[in-house]
Amino acid sequence: MSAARVGVVTFPGTLDDQDAARAVRLAGAEAVPLWHGDHDLKGVDAVFLPGGFSYGDYLRCGAISRFAPLMEQLIPAARGGLPVLGTCNGFQILCEAHLLPGALTRNASLHYICRDQRIKVESASTAWTADFAAGQELMLPIKHGEGRYVASAETLQELESNGQVVFRYLGGNPNGSLNDIAGISNEAGNIVGLMPHPEHAVEDLVGAPSTDGLGFFTSILKKLVNA
Ligand SMILES: NC(=O)CC[C@H](N)C(=O)O
């Protein structure tokens, strides 16, 4: 059986693509580099949109990236069920592309924050969280200036009642996100976005706060292998 292939997208200004590819490989899948200017998804089984400052965060974080040539392929594929995970800038891009509802705005403090953050897994029924248990606590790094999740009261209500709030901040809300939301999914559960960085918490050797991030990558691998 050939290895599951997870595409890792690099935009100009992406920072975390190397860590993302490494995390994919540590979980046992093949990491396939995808460039923002590519016109095809190279037949990958899932896609990871890593963090960073794509297109220099001009206009708003992710606002230009959503128009990258690769997104013309990625948007319909994700709507069709392709598993997609966006972390931090990747989450911002998913919201700007309307693959996830709501928006990420300036942190309430108006300061960039960089620290280890406790979060709670609210839903283990997405493609990227099946290896966790609902209620489980994770410790992951956060580093962002625009992580305050906002959405209309109606959208928030829908997310809550559909079980689309996947992660919530614990031990203090770092950025003023509504309902302490750290991550959400689409209704089908194949698209997940979160502000914390699982790809930076996969190996003890580098002094990561935990190896909790590995669960995202083992979750998707199992799903692809069993598909
Ligand atoms: N680490 C990141 O992906 C940063 C995201 C974005 N550039 C911000 O500051 O909000």
Automatic annotation (TrEMBL):
Pathway: Purine metabolism; IMP biosynthesis via de novo pathway; 5-amino-1-(5-phospho-D-ribosyl)imidazole from N(2)-formyl-N(1)-(5-phospho-D-ribosyl)glycinamide: step 1/2. CDD domains: GATase1_FGAR_AT. Its EC number is 6.3.5.3, 3.5.1.2. This is Phosphoribosylformylglycinamidine synthase subunit PurQ. It comes from the Bacteria. The active site is at residues 88, 197, 199. Part of the FGAM synthase complex composed of 1 PurL, 1 PurQ and 2 PurS subunits. InterPro entries: Class_I_gatase-like (IPR029062), PRibForGlyAmidine_synth_PurQ (IPR010075). Signal peptide: none annotated. NCBIfam families: FGAM_synth_I, PRK03619.1. Part of the phosphoribosylformylglycinamidine synthase complex involved in the purines biosynthetic pathway. Catalyzes the ATP-dependent conversion of formylglycinamide ribonucleotide (FGAR) and glutamine to yield formylglycinamidine ribonucleotide (FGAM) and glutamate. The FGAM synthase complex is composed of three subunits. PurQ produces an ammonia molecule by converting glutamine to glutamate. PurL transfers the ammonia molecule to FGAR to form FGAM in an ATP-dependent manner. Keywords: ATP-binding, Cytoplasm, Glutamine amidotransferase, Hydrolase, Ligase, Nucleotide-binding, Purine biosynthesis. Its main location: cytoplasm. It is found in: Cytoplasm. It catalyses: L-glutamine + H2O = L-glutamate + NH4(+); N(2)-formyl-N(1)-(5-phospho-beta-D-ribosyl)glycinamide + L-glutamine + ATP + H2O = 2-formamido-N(1)-(5-O-phospho-beta-D-ribosyl)acetamidine + L-glutamate + ADP + phosphate + H(+). GO terms for molecular function: glutaminase activity; phosphoribosylformylglycinamidine synthase activity.
